[in-house]
Design a protein that fits this description.
With 453 residues, this protein is of the alpha/beta class. It is 43% helix and 15% strand. The chain contains 18 helices and eleven strands.
Amino acid sequence: MLHLAPESLGFALDCAAQAVGAVRQGAALPAALHSIFVAQPEGVAAASRGAVQDIAYRTMRRLGTAEWLVARLVRKAPPPHVAHVLACALALLADDESNAAYAPFTVVDQAVNAIGARREYAFAKGLVNAVLRNFLREREALLAEADRDAVARWNYPVWWIDVVRAAWPDAWQAMLAAGNTQGPLTLRVNARRATVDAYLQTLREHQIAATQAGDHAVRLDTPMPVDRIPGFNEGVVSVQDAGAQLAAQWLGVRDGMRVLDACAAPGGKTGHLLELADIDLIALESDATRARRIGENLQRLGLHAQVRVGDAGNPAQWHDAADQPFDRILADVPCSASGIVRRHPDIRWLRRASDIPALVDEQRRILEALWPLVKPGGELLYVTCSIFPEEGELQAQWFGNRHADAVRLDAPGQLLPAVARAPADVSAGSRAGQSTGSSLDHDGFFYARFQKR
């Protein structure tokens, strides 16, 4: 048992350090945090959850800097947990004053308490105290030195930095910086229940500041828990990035259409499609546990789809020979998730360069399997939440060259993270392949739309 008050910063630092250690062992951050919370005595997780999550996510965004500082300030590598506590504390102390969440002396004191509370690491209390105080004394010089190291400056693996720099030579720095910010809380207004204007009025009545961020999108000025968002529990709004909301809009569904949402979990795009038209929709997901989340989200919205469990790349598992072809297919395929790192900062540390060719092959396998299911005159919308060209424009070009009956139509093309404005000519082709450079605050996505002759 960890003898720290669950509401203390020391407790939060210890739990966040456990999460960092789990990520460094290959676990996704949300899963690591969940395991830590459920392992606590009843009530403890609720008291500490917000602070633990905040520190863990801050550390993921500054992990390159924090680990560089640990290596620079500690002569002999400490035990992993001690190093991870130091990394969490240094990530907080390295924040500039406008972003600082805690007073420096509090961070030092509570990091020492966190180490001292664990008997097996109590010997390292003096080390932690000395390292953090040394950092504060030499903070500016150390951070300036860290800026000369690519990983410490940008907080991404070297291979990731190299790929982004090569793909987007005019925007790579802004793109990397965008991934180190916290994304806004954007809502999708259920078109069956309200308009954006009406919902903005509801928010004003609750004294919640917000602005319109798309045809059905509203961005809150200040994030808040979903149970405090007016109308969320009643299905009036859902949480969905403004860039992700373009999928349902560009698929162009109309009443009476037969539609497949492939790789559908957790069901955000499924719900949006059903909000826009009365359609016969199959929501497909390969993972049974994740497929259940589709049903849960649709239940909140008061909507219905056929939820099927199966591999989108193997229609024999879920598509009967007697089934009719589809008017529209949304192929939101597995990808690197490189476009959503500001919301999932652990992704950069979990991905490997070798993952990208494997993902490209998987995307092609799924596209090849789905294309025969599109009826003549029907459309397939290819979507990834990636900023890597191999998963975006190059993949779309491969598909168009491979299928003579595929006509490429207008679509957003490559959406870069909103903080990183794209030059007007970053993509090949005219309207079919262009980058939008949108003024909306969104994550990074790629969209390509094909019609079957």
